[in-house]
Amino acid sequence: MITQIKIEGFKSLEKVDLTLGHFNLFVGANASGKSNFFDALRVLQGIGYGFTIDEILNGKPKSAGSEVWEPIRGGSKMAEFVNIMADDSDTATIRFDISLKLSTQSQEINYSIVISAQPGGVEQEKLAIGNRIIFDGSKIWIQIFEDRFLGVQYYKEGTEPQPHLQFERSRPVLHQLLRYSGCSDIDREVIEACIHALSNMQRIDPSPAIVRDYSETHIVKRMGERGENFAALLKGISSDDKLRSAYVSWLRQLTPSELDDITVLQGALGEPLFAIKEHGNIYPAPILSDGTLRFAAIAAAFFQPDVPDLITIEEIENGIHPSRLRLLVELLKSQAAPNRQVMATTHSPIVLAWLQENDYATTFFCKRDEQTGASTIVPLTQVPRFLEIVQKQSIVDLFAEGWLEEAL
Question: What's this model's pTM, rounded to 2 decimal places?
């Protein structure tokens, strides 16, 4: 779980420092920085996958070893923060600092990386566990190595640093050090834990058109970001009585129809197709509403055989009936703990109405400065006078009337 994240110089995120929890909700107007924060998480995921900086920002075609990696919105050209009021146009750098609390490690892992988007290279990179540095890299020997390599000091199991190692600047050090023969098993375990935490994220943005179609495969442990192979996932969930019962229970509460059960139909070649049962009748996915399919896919994400450590969902209220938003919030909160993290965005004041006071510390309000273009992202607990005012006026009214924007 990411407990702390600092972002500098990425898109509109000039300088953001957030303490995160299991359930994290981001609210604010359009173009306020919410999606840019989620793009930052995708950059970290690309680092975990071991892609080059150029691939992370500009995309990667499908290969024998990986699926298609979609580019970050705007690619490398739009990745760096630009102060729209500034006169200079010097190439800036992008910095990420994160703290990870993992069940496999007794101490927090701290990882930082500084990249330059336009050349597509790593400028600095560092990994530590607790107070023990594992490696610390900075760009050196530029004239000697033509700016292609990063000089890295490796502190083997906490000893004095080894002589500078050289790694390619085009991709993060994490995976390169993992393949270094001199890396100890103890340090390799920490590096692998960091890589797993960064890569084990899933963006959920189900497309009803994709969810209502036949799956290309017969069974999967995890569906695609847009709901690809959703029916194949449901086939696996249905084979486990405990998972099936829990999933159907949530689906029954969150759909306005009288749902009895789920089932998986088969096409001519045995390809799976999602369907629901109501009053003894079977209704296949092609005739179900967009809202029903969208929620069915969101809920299924938490019952996947291979549930990721971090799930991100943008605009969670899309297609969900207002009367069911309370249950949706309850689902996300209940599934976010103890070893899972959820990050979601919303534009709906109704979603905010169902938050508890202890949710305010990880509910973040986003606002973009019209003059500089920089986004401010702060927890509601740090909005001046919020905790006082919300005792007298509902958070729904404060959000709808623009009080939060004025307060910042």
Answer: 0.92
* Confidence tier at 172 by pLDDT (50, 70, 90): very high
The predicted-structure confidence for 315-335, as pLDDT tens digits, reads as follows 998 877 787 888 889 989 988
Q: CA 75, 81, 86, 92 torsion: positive or negative?
A: negative
Distance (Å, rounded) from C-alpha 397 to C-alpha 408? 16
Q: How far apart are CA 81 and CA 39, in angstroms?
A: 13
Whole-Å CA distances, 159 to 34, 140, 162: 41, 22, 8
Pair of tokens at residue 88? 């200079």
> Quick one: CA dihedral 27, 33, 69, 127, positive or negative?
negative
* Whole-Å CA distances, 135 to 124, 131, 237: 11, 12, 42
Dihedral sign from CA coordinates of 68, 74, 76, 79: negative
Q: Taking a C-beta distance cutoff of 8 angstroms, is the pair 252, 242 a contact?
A: no
166 by DSSP, 3-state: which?
strand
Q: Are 267 and 286 in contact (CB under 8 A)?
A: no
Q: Which tokens is 315 given?
A: 């605009």
Query: First and final CA of the chain: distance in angstroms?
Result: 29
246-285: pLDDT as tens digits: 999 988 887 656 788 999 999 988 999 999 998 889 999 9
